[in-house]
Write a structure and sequence with these properties.
Distance between the termini: 35 Å
Number of domains: 1
Helix content: 10-25%
Radius of gyration: 14 Å
Order of helices and strands: EEEEEEEH
Structural class: mainly beta
Largest sheet: 7 strands, antiparallel
């Protein structure tokens, strides 16, 4: 079972045996489809029905951290200095927050080609 989504503004819904966490501002978090290798600690970020990133538990020498990454954005210039497109977080809640913050900054940057 995935970690709890008890943060304010988050909710969980069950649909076809998949756990879907609803993040504020039309973001959803769904299990990554790895075929028969489905894991409870690997998720895809969706925004308005599109895959926009991924987060998963990653074992490190210092314990488990959550790796996250943003994808699906076309850059037409340099990446803004204050934006990361991938990284590590201490837990799932932190990964969701860092992902959303960086994606929103990236979308607001002048170097991003508008999404269709």
């Amino acid at each position: 079972m995935p970690p709890s989504f008890a943060s304010k503004g988050m909710g969980i819904a069950r649909k076809k045996k998949a756990v879907i966490a609803v993040m504020p501002d039309r973001y959803t978090l769904r299990p990554t489809d790895l075929g028969s290798r489905r894991k409870d600690d690997d998720f895809i970020f969706h925004f308005n029905g599109r895959d926009v990133g991924r987060t998963y538990a990653d074992g490190t020498p210092n314990g488990v951290r959550w790796s996250w990454s943003i994808y699906g954005i076309n850059l037409c210039g340099p990446l803004p200095a204050d934006v990361a497109v991938q990284g590590l977080a201490d837990d799932l809640e932190a990964a969701k927050t860092i992902f959303k913050t960086n994606r929103e900054k990236l979308l607001a940057a002048d170097s991003v080609k508008p999404e269709n």
